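Lab notebook page, bench 4
Experiment: in silico fold of construct C2
Operator: M.H.
Input chain length: 73 residues
Purpose: comparison with the prior construct
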Amino acid sequence: MKEGKAGKEGLKPGQSAEASASYTVKPFEPPTVSIAANPSTIKPGENSAITANGLSPQNRPLTYSYSGKRPVL
């Protein structure tokens, strides 16, 4: 005679089971950036607007910074 509910014979309270699974951890894809200057060509003393747009393939937050020197004329 087996103990337990019908269809679950042999299982008793407090019993446990083990399982395993394989998985692969993939690194995040790197963000990309596009940069544009408007106008793209200037003469000394003129200005150009520089814009940069970043994109993260996993929609992770991006942090932007800029450093550069303004030419002395």
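Observations: The first strand starts at residue 32 and ends at 38. The mean pLDDT is 83.
Next step: discuss at group meeting.
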